[in-house]
Amino acid sequence: MLKIFSHYLPTHTLHQVLFDAALLFIVVLGAVAFQAAPGALDWAAWVPAALVFAASMIGLNAAMGLYRPVYQRCRRQAFARVALSLVVSVPVAYVTFGLMPWPEIAPHPMQVSILVLLCSLLMLRVVVNQRQAAGFFVPRVLIVGTGRDALAVYRDLTRPLQRSVDVVGFLPVGGQERVEVEPRQVLPPGSLLDVAGKLRVDEVIVAVRERRGGVLSLRELLDCKLGGIRILDLSTFFERSLGQIRLDSLRASWLIYGDGFRQGWARTFIKRVFDLVVGSLLLILALPVMIITAILILLEDGAPVFYGQERVGLGGKPFRVIKFRSMRRDAERDGKPRWASSNDDRVTRVGRVIRKLRI
Q1: What value does the mean pLDDT of the chain take?
Q2: More confident residue, 155 or 33
Q3: Is 61 exposed, middle or buried (0-12, 13-18, 19+ CB in 10 A)?
Q4: 35 touches 110 (CB < 8 A)
Q5: What are phi and psi of 191, to 5 degrees?
Q6: 11-35 helix and 108-133 helix, angle to the nearest 10 degrees
Q7: CA–CA separation, 263 vs 257, rounded Å?
Q8: CB-based contact 170:187 (threshold 8 Å)
Q9: Most C-beta atoms within 10 A of its C-beta, which of 8, 24, 65, 236?
């Protein structure tokens, strides 16, 4: 697993992105070269055009979540993401086609062939991901420890939608922990390096909270790492697996020496520009839905259409977030905000749809 811009990226995901980008790039050039007359193709103009097309399609697929780890979704969810990606990708592809320097032939057959490839590529992505989730290319994981932290790691690795690892067992250390895991999964005590080599382990997760007093040998961990085995502590594991920082497993040293809190001016500037550009594009795409929603709110319950709430942002500065109003106008007539409950009678009919679809 690679770490790019302080985010974990599985190696096979990078391979998928590169394969898809190369295939899109080659097929665009191949479709044009196959139908163009000899000498009529301007390669200097078409190579950048093919690069732009491939990059835009990969960016859209990534935004739709097609390159996320497969254990985060079932097959139905995967096909739903593909359908959503097609709805977004096909119009963008046609916009990109309009910018391409088509040769003096009918461009429509080439456009159709490229779109067929794009659809096939998306379906292939689902098949490949499901094969990985079914047990192909599954890493073998050894959990060091037998206490409640080890049990929490095991439960996270074996969630219903997470089938991408094979937990070979739990290695007890020091005899100081109460056994919270299934006893039949506890391995006999031994050298970490020997056990990892014997079981062909790819990754070791250290789920031991107390490491002082010789409970865990740093030399054995170092030998495993030098042998090509990945070593993860609790904080790093939960950050990678859940995208969260578990406070109960957090150490001060991880906060001090970790690289997840770097906020240089270049990173801040790029992030701000990206947020503004992408936010503006999404606003334009969502404008028809927003207009329809506003009209429905007005027809059912009248003005106002929007509802503002105060939130706390960067540096503790308050700001107001504006949302479509989903409750009656007199929902908080006493001036005191109250949490919404299940089947809350303050929610309007349009509001139920808004909340369900996250508009």
Answers
A1: 74
A2: 155
A3: buried
A4: yes
A5: -65, 135
A6: 160
A7: 14
A8: yes
A9: 24
Alpha helices, DSSP H, located in the chain:
11-35, 43-63, 75-98, 108-133, 148-157, 192-198, 218-226, 234-242, 252-257, 265-301, 349-357
pTM reported for the whole predicted model: 0.46
| C-alpha 302: how far from chain center | 39
Q: What does the alpha-carbon distance between residue 67 and residue 123 come to, in Å, rounded to a whole number?
A: 13
Q: What is the DSSP string of 323-340?
A: EE--B-TTTTTTS-----
Cβ(75)–Cβ(130) below 8 Å: yes
Q: What is the dihedral of CA 202, 207, 210, 215, to 10 degrees?
A: -40
144 band by pLDDT with thresholds 50, 70 and 90: confident
Q: Which residues of 76-115 are buried (b: 16+ CB within 10 A; e: fewer)?
A: eebeebbeebbeebeeebeebbeebebbeeebeebbebbb
Residue-wise pLDDT for 268-303, tens only, equals 888 889 889 988 888 898 888 889 988 988 888 888
Residue of 173, 172, 191, 192 lying closest to 183 (CA atoms): 172
- Rama region for 304: left / alpha / beta (φ>0; ψ in -120 to 50; rest): beta
Fold of 140-257: Rossmann fold (3.40.50)
List the structure tokens of 19. 């394969």
**Residue type at 170 in one-letter notation:** F
Look at residue 308 and give its three-state secondary structure: strand
For 324-350, letters b (16+ CB in 10 Å) and e give bbbbeeebeeeeeeeeeeeeeeebbeb
Return the structure tokens found at 350.
Answer: 């349009």
Can you give the residue ranges of every domain in the chain? 2-133, 140-257, 266-357
Q: For residues 359 and 348, what is the distance between their CA atoms, to the nearest angstrom?
A: 14
Q: What is the DSSP string of 128-191?
A: HHHHHHTTTTPPEEEEE--SHHHHHHHHHHT-TT--S-EEEEEE--TT-S---S-GGGBPPP--
Contact (CB, 8 A) for 349 and 327:
no
